[in-house]
């Protein structure tokens, strides 16, 4: 090798990632968002890999967005071979720009799916059973009429899932005991896979019209940005609940507020917002029919560790010359291999290095 791999990261979801990578022949450099920009750029400009900071990480800094993997960062960081996002979402990375630059893009879908799916189910139960609403009312003063808190059951209802990836698929499994009809809108889901999962693929219009719970679990992409707006909320049942653990820009917040305040839908469970963390004066946070969490669906002890292990082993695979297991832009592979060989003197193989028993060189 002409150089040791250098990996820049902002933080790990669990220290085990650093422990795994510290035993490998890799230079680990922590991106310090409180430090001078010049120090951070010096680190990134020498990096072969970048574990990209999250939007929440950079939100508190005036120029925080410069540390996301967009065209400007890619132009400055000519040595970059691969960038990875912390979890399943990868909207912090411009995938097309990376592909043009010969940079592999990876996420960490899968390890956090259980945590997010359980959180989504929790929203369903909370809204249907009016758990948070009852808690608020009970704490506010003497309860005069319990019937005002009459909720509903999940059993026999219709669940609509927008995006049947790892999270959506696990949510369907968790809802199986409730004997719900499951409708799915996902242009990339084939009929055979749908049948195997016991779901029915429908158009977005049919899903919205028929579902008692509309769950958004798709990634934020050009296709999904603004997918749910005023027209879509108007198509939902007045008794239906809108729930999202995806990304804020998939839905129109102003349209959602209007739907909730006008009674066009019954309520919402929100883990994501357009601005994160949301401002205290965000009107959605002051509605009684909204249950909200600050993008914490995937934050559990177990998920944080699982994601950290997956993160570290994926970087091991990359630097050992294997194909990363969660490669999002496979078209980049030939050019990535050329650039990798120029940097390290050997050519990657199409199988993951860890599967083939290799070690980091």
Would you kindly provide a written description of the structure presented here, covering whatever features stand out?
With 361 residues, the chain is an alpha/beta fold. It folds into two domains: 6-107 and 301-344, 3-Layer(aba) Sandwich (Rossmann fold); 112-292, 3-Layer(aba) Sandwich (Rossmann fold). Helices cover 36% and strands 12% of the residues. The protein is built from 14 helices and twelve strands. The strands form two sheets. Strands 8-7-6-9-10-11-12 form a seven-stranded parallel beta sheet, sandwiched between helices. Strands 2-1-3-4-5 form a five-stranded parallel beta sheet. Strand 9 (213-216), helix 11 (230-235) and strand 10 (241-244) form a beta-alpha-beta unit. The protein is globular and about 70 Å long. It starts with 5 loop residues before the first strand and ends in a 17-residue tail after the last helix. The relative contact order is 0.15. The model is unreliable at 352-361 (pLDDT under 50).
């Amino acid at each position: 090798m002409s150089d040791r791999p250098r990996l820049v990261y902002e933080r790990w979801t669990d220290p085990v990632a650093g422990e795994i990578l510290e035993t490998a022949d890799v230079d680990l450099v922590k991106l310090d968002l409180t430090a001078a920009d010049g120090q951070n750029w010096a680190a990134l400009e020498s990096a072969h890999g970048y574990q990209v900071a999250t939007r929440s990480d950079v939100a508190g800094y005036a120029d925080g967005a410069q540390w996301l993997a967009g065209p400007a960062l890619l132009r400055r960081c000519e040595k970059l071979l691969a960038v990875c996002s912390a979890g399943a979402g990868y909207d912090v990375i411009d995938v097309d720009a990376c592909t043009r630059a010969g940079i592999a893009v990876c996420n960490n879908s899968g390890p956090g799916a259980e945590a997010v799916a359980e959180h989504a189910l929790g929203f369903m139960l909370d809204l249907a059973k009016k758990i948070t609403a009852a808690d608020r009312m009970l704490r506010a003063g003497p309860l005069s009429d319990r019937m005002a808190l009459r909720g509903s059951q999940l059993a026999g209802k219709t669940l609509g899932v927008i995006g049947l990836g790892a999270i959506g698929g696990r949510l369907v499994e968790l809802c199986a005991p409730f004997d719900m009809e499951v409708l799915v809108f996902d242009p990339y889901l084939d009929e055979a896979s749908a049948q195997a999962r016991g779901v029915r693929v429908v158009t977005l219009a049919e899903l919205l019209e028929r579902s008692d719970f509309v769950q958004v679990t798709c990634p934020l992409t050009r296709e999904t940005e603004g997918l749910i707006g005023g027209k879509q909320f108007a198509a939902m049942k007045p008794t239906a609940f809108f729930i999202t653990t995806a990304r804020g820009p998939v839905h129109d917040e102003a349209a959602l507020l209007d739907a909730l305040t006008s009674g066009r839908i019954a309520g919402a469970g929100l883990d994501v917002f357009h601005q994160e963390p949301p401002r205290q004066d965000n009107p959605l946070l002051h509605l009684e029919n909204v249950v909200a969490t600050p993008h914490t669906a995937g934050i559990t002890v177990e998920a944080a560790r699982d994601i950290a292990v997956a993160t570290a082993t994926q970087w091991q695979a990359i630097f050992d010359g294997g194909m990363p297991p969660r490669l999002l832009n496979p078209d980049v592979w030939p050019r990535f291999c050329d650039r990798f060989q120029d940097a390290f003197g050997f050519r990657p193989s199409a199988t993951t290095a860890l599967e083939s028993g290799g070690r980091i060189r």
